[in-house]
Amino acid sequence: MLLESLKNLGITVGISLAVAFLYFLISPIHDENSNLLSRTAPTFLDVVVAIFGGLAGVIAHTQGKNDTVIPGVAIATALMPPLCTAGYGLAIGNWGYFFGASYLFLLNSLLIAASAYFFIRYLKFPKKEYLTPKIDKRVRVYTWVFIIIAVAPSGYLFYKMTKRSIFEGNANAFVTEVVANVDENIVVNPTYEFDWDESVIHLAITNFYADEGTRAMWDRLKSEYDLDYARIHIQQDKDFESLVQEKLEDYDQKNAGANTLAQLLSKKENELLRMQQQIDQFEELLKPNESEFKIDHVLAGFKIDYPEYKHIYINESYSLNASNQLDTNYIMSVEFNPEIGAEERHKLNSKISRRMKLELSQKGHVKQDTVRVISLN
Q: Do 365 and 291 meet the contact criterion of CB atoms below 8 Å apart?
């Protein structure tokens, strides 16, 4: 009976996976939406859903209800979505998506079967007898070991997700209450990078220069938000006054005693030329982009694929890097519908950031390490 069950399961899984693979291979739509991404990283919450799905099915069966409604719902909610995601991973060549979704399918299948098995044993249904009690005990041990091995990774992933959520909540409070209050004109765009050893709080700052004293104060206040293990990385423009002073001192050292009117005029002319070159770069950058990247089309797609957002804004910002070259940064500001919870907001922000990065790369030919997403509510 076990071999026959595995055979039937293998056939149905193979057909489902093949259909999903062919669909995503042929379909022109390859956008990563929340329904797909949520099935690529199973957690302990998926274990709970699978257990109750299995219990609902076996309880309905033991009550004499032989209809297929409840088992059908369990299949539609717990088994087919990860199989479709696994087919999507195969179609786009993303093995991380494939193995993550396959593990979720295995986990749900195992827990549905296990919950049904234990409930039936609890009701003392007649069962086939083993030849000896020793074989019976060995089968039970193998069953428990297999279940623990399958469920343990989901517990680890759930713990990691919880730690990341706590870190990002503390980091967001730190940025809001400490960093953003250092000056009324400061504009801060934070991004958070969670790591077991050293998490990083990335701060993109404009309209303010964080000197050594300010950075030291922020480092001291991290402990009040349980962020001792985190490192603050600041991206900001150079301090204008310090930069001018350094240039003047360097000029005086190189041209001591030669402050003639002609030299000063020459210096002024060079400064004007340099400023004109920067203006030309800005004008070139602000010219309409004739590439395939259309912000209005992107926003329209986001409104369809992510109905959880009330408003989505896309902004371009420019800064000079260490080589005095212009860098273009895309920043997204989002406003959620009130019923969306904090955990779901974080997942959606991560997905829409990756989606925007993909749109920029494929249609705008713009390479971005990351796209910052700022929640407005």
A: yes
